[in-house]
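Q: How would the structure tokens look for this protein?
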Amino acid sequence: MATTQQLIDKFQIIGTNPMAAQRLALDTLDKLTNGEIIIVDPTGPVPYLLEVALSASSAAMLQNEALNRRQYSSVAKNEEELYLHMSDKDYIGRFAAPGKAQAISIALSLDEVISKAVDVNDGNGTRKLTIPKHTEITVADMKFTLQYAIDIWVMSWNGIDVLYDTSTMSPLQRLESNRPSWAGVTIGGRRYLRITFPVMQMAIISNMAQLNNITGFSKQFAFTDNFYCVRAYTKNNVDAAWTEIAVTHTALVYDPTVATVVLKVLNQAVDVKVPQIYFNNGLIKDSIRIDIYTTKGPVDFSLAAYSPTTYKIRWTDRDTEKTSDFSAPFATFSEMIFFSDSQVSGGTLPLTFAQLREQVMNNNRGDGRIPITPSQLTRTAEVNGFGLVLNIDNLTDRQYLATRQLPAPTDGSTVTGAGCTIHQLQAKMADLAMLDTVADNGNRITIKPETLFLATDGVFEPVASSTVATLKNPALTPPEALANLVNSANYYWTPYYYVLDATQEEFNLRPYRLNAPQVVSRFFANDNPSLLFDVSTLSSSLTMSPTGSGYLLQIEILTNEVFRAFALDQIAIQLSYKRPGSTQRFHYNAVLLTPIDGGTNKPVNDRYVYGFYLDTNFDIDAQHRLIMTPGYNEMELSTEFDLVYIIKNHMPPGTQTTDIDSIIDKLSIPNYDQNATYVGIVQEKIALKFGDFLKHLWARSRSVAGSVEYATYVTDVPAIYTENVYLRDSMGNIELSWDSINNELDYTLLRPKGYPVPNTAGEAAYATALESNSSLTYADWWDALSSIDKSAYQELAHRAGDRVRGVDGEYVVTNSGRAMLRQIDLLFIDGKYYFSTADVTTSYVSELIETMSSWIVNEIASIASSLGERTQLFLYPATTVGVLKAIVANGQEVTVSADQHFVVQYYLTDDKYKNVELKRRLAERTPKILADALTADTIALSDIIGKLRDANGNDVVSTSVTGFVGDAYPAITLKDRSLRPTIGKQLVPLSNQLLAVEDAVSVEFINHTKK
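A: Here is the predicted structure in token form.
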């Protein structure tokens, strides 16, 4: 027994080596028989059988070890072993993930939508058009594909509604709402229905095949670009639609009761097999369809530069055999426009094995929509193009910062994006309120984007409004002088509105975007047909008011001859809404904006354009409600209004009242006539969006004790008697006597109420006067004094400059909480973009703000919505201006400028020095090479020169670079990877006197030729 156990112990060590095990067995046999049994012939049956047995045992042990190892993802050696631990959801994004365009718009002729909508036969006259669920949009040499059909519903009265068809959910796209953004708009004087929706950058390659249960199915399909995923479908020959089936990437993991195809992704091809069991149990039908989704991977560019004519559309619903009756009319539309100013961003390349292994081990992907663990959140952020930094992690709270560099202009005007930083500003609200660009609302103030800041030695301070006016006045500061001033200083501005709120017990800072208002939707609600004529809105737009006092809603009326026959004073238009949480309604009356034709006394060219001035001082309360002026009524940032057309003194026979009249405020109508009749014609619903609360933008704040300012007296204040002063006895009682003549008590009044209290000199002067006339009363004496004597004789209650006390006895504070120093973190952009006037730069600024806002409101908000209750996620853009910390020689920590300015000198031979095209190419590619060199964690001047030399090859004899970290250090290592150096910017005056922003890279060419 002991010998058997010894053999087992040794076989566990050498069991996978048959030769060693055979030697052990023969040695053991020799020992047990004391050498009496000797195997002398290695080809005999005993050695042969022993070799076979041990080889089989060794193979079994190896197989057992391999199968046992496959149970643990941490010991997986290849993708096949990892696939055993992956759910279906883990395959989404395993290979590559697509970027996304947040808003692509289609504008359809409204007349054609109404006329071509197809009846749904519901008995109510409802009609419909359907944008197919797999519609493919091609622009910028990229394909974008929808995942949900969009239904355009046309009601019997021609009212419009637009909804996603969510009857079948896509695992690739999560909808935040079942309603895309839509509105009626006017383009070139014609009415359109504009629908805006997000779409992912991916293409679908569909492959269909007939199935045979005898031969089975195994086929290879080629694809281009990066593999994203496969969706598989099956159907019988008699079926009208395809049924989706499961997909797996390993033949060892699938459910025999659920139809599944097995994939293997190869180099630009995917191998597809259907396990035979599904043919046997009848789960696979007659036909199979394999949809291969491909993507370009990481993208970051704007669609704003692409004209509508560059868009190509393919109307497709791959789940149906033929074009739907509701989709077919799109092929006949004569007026259709696709456009977008959205940034296309995000996306990833296929995961490496190490990344996939970590994802599977940590369950980073989960179901692809709910990041719960830190590793899942990190992966989700990476797919969306963000880096992640853990800022706070304790028992009660966890806080993450999503970092990302600002995108560069798509036109290549600069190779890197605008300089950006989040920095602390320390100031008093009272001081900030003195700026013209700050809205003063008492204990709430709003810093507007027009506010300019100057950084001196790392300290940010607002620039006086008068100084800004001087800088922006070309007569006082010419473009060349302004460029030099701005380039030599550190100016900054913020693109957002920041509300500083001291109304609550805890000071609060809230960022908003308020300067991109929009009409979200508009649709018919009610009418009064008994008036025998109709009117409706042709177009609408919401813009910032030209007065700077809020917003202007403009509407143009679609009129007819009947309407135009009425006098202008017979037409009134009202806009109204209900106060949040109340039935109280507020009204605005329209103002005609179109000039009047003196000959007809009607609007010029019969264009009836009206405006509603929605005034506000950009005050927003803690519930994120916009406070309107002058009534200080609250309004949600997204509010639905009632737009009502009203007719005066028009009541044909049979005129009836409708519910429209109940929401009209007749008394507020301009030039209201109490003897006239006012009847509502049409009621429309119009949804307006004034802005967004940027909940997920980093905005930290705290308060620091500062000096308090008290109310003081401007002039001397005399003391007066507040009560009558009577003659009293030694006990303090008023001395009374009996007046026998009048039969009443009498008393002696010494000093009457309201008269000034005399000082010492005054008392002496009055005493002297009494010596001459003992019956002289105090009142008569004081009234007889000259103004000079009164000033000299009166006692002062308060001197000029003394503090004022309130009724509670405490000193009156004039600046209340506004005296506290507030430390607030604001998002700052390089001030060179504040002063730029060239279209190429101002267009980029608009795109940049739109992109950042989309990051905050859409992408980060979507990720944050799935986090735990005490977990927060904020956008914290990578710092690319200001200073950052770096390590230099001997581990020394230093601060260096984040924006780098370079001077590059190229030494060229004579023939190449004279080659203008060569020098142009060298100058054009140099900033790109420098920008790429700055992406490393350790940046060395020698590496920068090396990259330039490698890129330019034999075109350049030698290369010299100066300016790197101010020529102070030959190499630096970044201490914080979220803070990165970048190519600096400079403000440059153009020949047309406009100012543009360019890269701060100067390229010089030196002729290196023998004389």
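Residues 204-295 form a domain with the Immunoglobulin-like fold (CATH 2.60.40).

The mean pLDDT is 86.

Upvote if useful.
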